[in-house]
Structures are given as C-alpha cells and as structure tokens.
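User: Study the shape:
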Amino acid sequence: MSLTKACALFRMSRSVYGYRFVARDALALLARIKAIAATRVHYGYRRVHVMLQRDGWKDHHKRVYRLYRAEGLSLRQKRPKRNKSARLAVMSENIRYGALSMSAGEQLAN
C-alpha cells in the first residue's frame, strides 16, 4: 500500500506522517529566565519574555510563564488601595447606619 493511500485511509495528511517532535531543553531557557529575574527583580514574566525575545529566544510566552511560575519567581499580587474617604465614620459603638436602621413606616412618619 502506498503512503498516500495509507494516509487517506486514516484521514491524515502526508506531512503529519513525516513529522517528528523534537523536545527542546528547558534548562538553558530556565537558567536565562532566572538570570533576568535576579538582575531585574520587579520584572514579571511578560517583561522577562520581551527580554528573552531581544536575546534571540523564540519561545512562546506561555512556556515562559509556566517555567517562571514553576520556579516561584512570580511577583506578589498587589491589592488595590481602599479609598479612606468612602468609609463611614463611627460616631459611637454600634451606631454607624443611623438613618438606614429606621423602617419604612418610621421614615414616612418623620
């Protein structure tokens, strides 16, 4: 049976038949990621990926993120600052929402 007919039988292209996966070594990439993260502490994985691209690495950002996170290099998540003026002032114990505690009937009576 010819290659063309065999590939047609399995409904796959001939180019897929000849494909051979070549695994790249992640150790060299990981060493470079660690070097960049050590010199530039405030860089996240996105900036590290840009630096790798400038150095000539052709790895995808998802791979860089996976290695970056696996090594524990992720930056801490900053919580948004809360607006202090938006907080309600406490006048005395257990009294904060004085106007809101009245029922609808009491509000109509006033």
